[in-house]
């Protein structure tokens, strides 16, 4: 996520230019009234000049209590006077007496009390409206009319605008300074005071921060500041923080300055604080985003109040306010009134995507009257339509949509008749109702269903397009990019709709949507979401989940994580980033959790473990292991596959074995890879086998395999045999990490390791090795000469590493023979039989199986002939019992050593 | 610098005694303005609720999709009476708000004068039950 853009711009505070902020000179300074520092603004020079100490804190609390007491007293007087009046009237007078002037002017004592009650009531109204406000309202809270005034020269004291909790926080900052023996209240102390307050608790919960964990660091930080005895004053930085908090709150249209603004400004004003929290794994962007989260909820609450207020005018039935509409029984059967749903509060507001909404409204007003929203599943097309419904409820829409209702037609139901004629008839009858009623705007989710994109041969597109042409109704439709290209773009229906593209959300927008939706998820599951969980859900789903676009994908992950946490740890628990990572891991098989100690040990030992199976070929093993470590530590770009390797070398030297070993060691199974033998892809048609035939939903062999299992090894054997078009296809995969299949789905290859093997240049490699040339020299010649005629230079350039596998030496073949015999021993162990081989016998086998031209391949055949076959004979003849040992002797024969019988 | 004594003075002279002096001034300036604003907002809400603008705009558009001649005639008549009825209701409400405003202006001083008159004419004390 771009961190810098998240920092709110705080207004620049300056030292008073009249007194230069000099403490002695500033006492009588008219501009800053002694504050020394402030922010010039349209409301005057903003200053903080209020003393906070035990006395003023006590007075402030006392004042609140005194005012409450006065109000109660006045209210009691009013009630008492009115009660006395009525009690006397009921006891001694009749209703008729009350209607005479003499009753009211004769001067009865209880009537006088009634008069006084009226005066006290007026006084009470005055007191309530002027003395119960928690603070002064910020100038920007409601749009004010005297803007455009020239800058005032007077100072404006900001403390009266601080809310009750904000003042409490400042008072507790004073207490912290006093308790820790500091002479000044600094931004760090203000920050600590907010953290320790009730608003701070919410912050820490969202951040996943525990007060105990930061307490010591904050205390140490406070200890670094000036010590001394009272009086305790505000440091210049603290004054700047408080004034900036005022300016920021005003700028963001808040009603009062709340602890949150102090918190944010104190944080931004202290680099030391940012550094300390960063070290505790709370980067500045986290802290600022959590603050934004809290702000967003405040804003959503305000928006909801506004929506409820405006929604009062919207009719609660299908009748419009002009009462021109009529009943639409058929339409009602196949549709849902979105404006009614919005009115009842079922549709949530859209977050971001304001540009799409503007484009949509402009499209509707353009004269074409109908718009199609094009975007991938999950990118928020429905949210745009729901927002439109909400705006129609608020009546904040162009004239065309005013006093109308948005009705979503269920197209699947409409075409469900099976008979195209019947479906068309239904559609026309519904459109007739829409025309006569005149107050309906249609919302069609997945408009491709009209073309038959959703259900077989049904095609109502032409019927619908010709009705649309008449211009008597308005449509807002949605479709995916793929359906748009495939079914709509070239049809007359497509041409009649204004296309508005809904782009998938980026990480920042996704986090914002998650923040907005967090309340519902938390309420439903009774768990709490941390910011780290939100951020993780956004980044992981953007990187690894491609079936559904963001923000829906991230939202799904977060919802599942919340359920997981509720079930595993119970209600009231926190959803952490690790919980989110676990869900993504379960969905994709990609290890995205934090690297555990066990895993990091395994990763660091990867070379050793791979050498357990691959003999020699140090360069290859090292390169592969390093690539895996880079991938797991997330140090790669993320836009290309984990690694693109080309293994070159003669047959039988371990190229495929290296890939299998990696699959075994890192992916858990040697078959956990997609292996394609390129000798089967020599025709031009092979490309379609790989990526699938156009419009064939089954997809291609390669693309489907990677789509289902994105974290995998793609092994392409004998690449030199593939058709050149196949290689061209891989140019894109290796560079962009993606491939579009036959139906237009983009398949993500960024979590795949691509390994290609080739025998090309074998004879050169063998000769060069024999001449004792170094691996580097061999590689250079291969690239510059030997491979030039076989592969295109841009293809070879795409590889991260081209690894030359050297021919095996005799010693290595002996080691391989040991490995192969080890596998035989393992198989026999399952039958309870032991196996042992003597050194000369193994060397004999290696000599017999060693062929510089074929590597270790003949060895397998030799071992098969001389060892496997003979063991099979022994087993069939039943000459071996459990616990016996088969020994491969020096002469190459097999003997059975009988185990001692414990009963004998 | 704002002195501590200032806070104390503010408490005693503004919140306690000051408010008694400020009250009559507030009542006819800021308070009256607030009250009139409240009345106007109430009327605005009501007129929005009655949707005069929409009804005038659709005066000749038939109600309930009845596009035949009879439907149109009935509709125009209906719309005329509904607009008239709503107009009368709005005027009545405005009158009520006007009465409230009059009461706001006149009631407190009249009540105070009557009370004072009773108290100072001596009758008040003579009649007290104790």
What does this structure look like?
- The complex is a heterodimer of chains A (904) and B (130).
- Chain A contains 38 helices and 24 strands.
- With 904 residues, chain A is an alpha/beta fold.
- Among the domains of chain A are: 313-498, Rossmann fold (3-Layer(aba) Sandwich), CATH 3.40.50.300; 507-583, Orthogonal Bundle (Helicase, Ruva Protein, domain 3); 597-804, P-loop containing nucleotide triphosphate hydrolases (Rossmann fold); 810-897, Helicase, Ruva Protein, domain 3 (Orthogonal Bundle), CATH 1.10.8.
- In chain A, the strands form seven sheets. Chain A has a six-stranded mixed sheet, sandwiched between helices. Chain A has a five-stranded parallel sheet with strand order 16-17-20-15-21, with helices on both faces.
- In chain A, helix 19 links the parallel strand 10 and strand 11.
- Chain A is extended and about 140 Å long.
- Mean pLDDT of chain A is 85; it is low at 1-7 and 145-151.
- Chain B has one domain (23-127).
- The model of chain B has no long low-confidence stretch (mean pLDDT 86).
- Chain B has 130 residues and is mostly helical.
- Classes of the chains: A alpha/beta (904), B mainly alpha (130).
- Chains A and B meet through helix 1 and helix 4 of A and helix 1, helix 2, helix 3, helix 4 and helix 5 of B.
Helix coverage percent of residues of chain B? over 70%
Average pLDDT, all residues of chain B? 86
Give the helix tally of chain B.
5
Order of helices and strands of chain B: HHHHH
The CATH superfamily of the domain at 597-804 in chain A appears as P-loop containing nucleotide triphosphate hydrolases
CATH architecture assignment of the domain at 597-804 in chain A: 3-Layer(aba) Sandwich
- Assembly state: heterodimer
Estimated share of beta-strand residues of chain B: under 5%
Number of strands of chain A: 24
Uncertain spans of chain A:
1-7, 145-151
What top-tier CATH class of the domain at 597-804 in chain A fits best?
Alpha Beta
Structural class of chain B: mainly alpha
What is the overall number of helices of chain A?
A: 38
End-to-end gap of chain A = 76 Å
Largest interface: A-B, 49 and 46 residues
Radius of gyration of chain A using CA atoms only = 39 Å
Quote the distance from N terminus to C terminus of chain B.
Answer: 54 Å
Strand content of chain A: 5-15%
């Amino acid at each position: 996520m771009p961190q810098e853009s998240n920092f709110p711009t705080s207004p620049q505070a300056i030292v008073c230019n009249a007194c230069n902020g000099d403490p002695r000179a500033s006492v009588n300074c008219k501009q800053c009234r002694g504050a020394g520092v402030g922010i010039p603004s349209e409301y005057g020079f903003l200053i903080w000049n209020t003393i906070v100490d035990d006395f003023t804190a006590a007075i402030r609390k006392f004042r609140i209590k005194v005012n409450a007491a006065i109000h109660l007293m006045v209210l009691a007087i009013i009630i008492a006077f009115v009660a006395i009046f009525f009690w006397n009237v009921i006891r001694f007078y009749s209703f008729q007496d009350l209607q005479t002037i003499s009753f009211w002017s004769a001067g009865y004592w209880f009537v006088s009390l009634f008069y006084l009650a009226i005066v006290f009531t007026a006084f009470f109204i005055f007191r309530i409206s002027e003395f119960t406000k928690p603070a002064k309202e910020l100038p920007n809270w409601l749009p004010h009319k005297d803007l455009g005034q020239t800058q005032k020269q007077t100072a404006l004291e900001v403390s009266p605008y601080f809310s009750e909790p904000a003042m409490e926080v400042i008072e507790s900052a004073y207490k912290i300074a006093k308790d820790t023996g500091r002479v000044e209240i600094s931004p760090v102390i203000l920050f600590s005071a907010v953290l320790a307050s009730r608003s701070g608790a919410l912050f820490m919960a969202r951040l996943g921060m525990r007060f105990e964990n930061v307490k010591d660091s904050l205390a140490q930080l406070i200890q670094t500041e000036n010590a001394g005895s009272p009086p305790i004053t505000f440091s210049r930085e603290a004054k700047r923080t408080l004034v900036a908090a005022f300016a920021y709150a005003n700028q963001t249209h808040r009603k009062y300055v709340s602890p949150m603004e102090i918190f944010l400004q104190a944080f931004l004003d202290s680099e030391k604080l940012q550094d300390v929290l960063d070290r505790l794994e709370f980067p500045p962007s986290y802290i600022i985003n959590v603050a934004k989260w809290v702000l967003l909820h405040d804003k959503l609450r305000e928006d909801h109040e506004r929506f409820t207020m405006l929604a009062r005018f919207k009719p609660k039935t299908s009748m419009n306010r002009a009462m021109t509409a009529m009943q639409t029984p058929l339409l009602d059967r196949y549709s849902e009134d979105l404006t009614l749903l919005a009115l009842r509060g079922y549709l949530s507001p859209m977050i971001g995507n304001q540009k799409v909404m503007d484009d949509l409204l402009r499209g509707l007003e353009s004269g074409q009257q109908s718009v199609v929203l094009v975007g991938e599943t999950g990118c928020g097309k429905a949210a745009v339509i729901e927002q439109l419904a909400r705006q129609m409820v608020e009546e904040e829409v162009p004239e065309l949509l005013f006093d109308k209702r948005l009705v979503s037609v269920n197209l699947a139901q409409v075409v469900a008749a099976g008979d195209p004629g019947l479906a068309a008839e239904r559609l026309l009858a519904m459109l007739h109702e829409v025309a006569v009623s005149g107050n309906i705007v249609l919302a069609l989710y997945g408009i491709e269903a009209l073309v038959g994109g959703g259900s077989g041969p049904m095609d109502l597109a032409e019927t619908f397009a010709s009705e649309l042409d008449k211009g008597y109704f308005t449509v807002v439709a949605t479709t995916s990019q793929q359906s748009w290209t495939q079914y709509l773009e070239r049809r007359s229906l497509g041409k009649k709709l204004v296309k508005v593209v809904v782009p998938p959300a980026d990480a920042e927008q996704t986090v914002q949507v998650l923040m907005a939706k967090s309340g519902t998820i938390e309420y439903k599951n009774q768990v709490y979401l941390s910011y780290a969980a939100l951020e993780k859900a956004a980044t992981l789903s953007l990187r690894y989940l491609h079936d559904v676009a963001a923000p829906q994908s991230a939202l799904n992950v977060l919802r599942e994580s919340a359920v997981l946490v509720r079930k595993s740890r119970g209600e009231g628990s926190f959803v952490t980033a690790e919980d989110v990572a676990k869900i993504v891991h379960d969905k994709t098989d990609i290890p995205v959790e934090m690297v555990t100690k066990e895993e990091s040990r395994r990763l660091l030992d990867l070379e050793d473990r791979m050498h357990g199976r691959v003999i020699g070929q140090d360069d290859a093993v090292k390169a592969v292991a390093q690539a895996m470590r880079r991938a797991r530590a997330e140090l790669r770009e993320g836009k290309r596959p984990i690694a693109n390797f080309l293994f070159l070398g003669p047959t039988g030297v371990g190229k495929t074995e290296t890939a299998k070993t990696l699959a075994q060691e890192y992916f858990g199974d040697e078959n956990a890879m997609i292996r394609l033998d390129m000798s089967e892809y020599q025709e031009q048609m092979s490309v379609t086998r790989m990526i699938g035939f156009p419009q064939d939903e089954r997809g291609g062999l390669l693309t489907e395999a990677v789509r289902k299992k994105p974290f995998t090894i793609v092994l392409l054997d004998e690449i030199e045999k593939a058709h050149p078009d196949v290689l061209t296809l891989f140019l894109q995969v290796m560079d962009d990490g993606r491939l579009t299949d036959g139906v237009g789905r983009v398949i993500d290859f960024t979590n795949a390791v691509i390994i290609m093997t080739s025998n090309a240049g074998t004879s050169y490699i063998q000769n060069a090795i024999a001449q004792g040339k170094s691996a580097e020299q061999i590689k250079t010649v291969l690239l510059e000469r030997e491979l030039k005629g076989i592969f295109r230079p841009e293809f070879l350039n795409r590889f991260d590493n081209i690894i030359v596998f050297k021919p095996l030496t005799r010693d290595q073949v002996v080691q391989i023979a040991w490995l192969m015999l080890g596998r035989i021993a393992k198989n026999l162990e399952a039958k309870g039989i032991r196996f042992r081989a003597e050194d000369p016998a193994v060397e004999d086998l290696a000599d017999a199986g060693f062929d510089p031209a074929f590597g270790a391949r003949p060895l397998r055949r030799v071992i098969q002939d001389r060892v496997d076959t003979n063991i099979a004979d022994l087993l069939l003849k039943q000459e071996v019992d459990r616990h016996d040992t088969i020994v491969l002797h020096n002469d190459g024969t097999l003997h059975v050593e009988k185990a001692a019988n414990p009963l004998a | 610098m704002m002195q501590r004594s200032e806070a104390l003075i503010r408490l005693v002279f503004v919140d306690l005694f000051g408010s008694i002096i400020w009250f009559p001034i507030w009542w006819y300036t800021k308070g009256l303005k607030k009250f009139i604003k409240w009345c106007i907002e109430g009327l605005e809400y009501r007129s929005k609720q009655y949707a005069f603008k929409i009804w005038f705009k659709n005066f000749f558009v038939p109600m309930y999709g009845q596009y035949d001649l009879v439907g149109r005639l009935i509709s125009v008549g209906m719309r005329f009476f509904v607009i008239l009825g709503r107009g009368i209701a709005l005027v009545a409400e405005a009158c009520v708000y006007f009465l409230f405003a009059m009461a706001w202006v006149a009631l407190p001083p009249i009540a105070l004068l009557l009370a004072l008159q009773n108290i100072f004419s001596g009758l008040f004390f003579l009649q007290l039950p104790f």
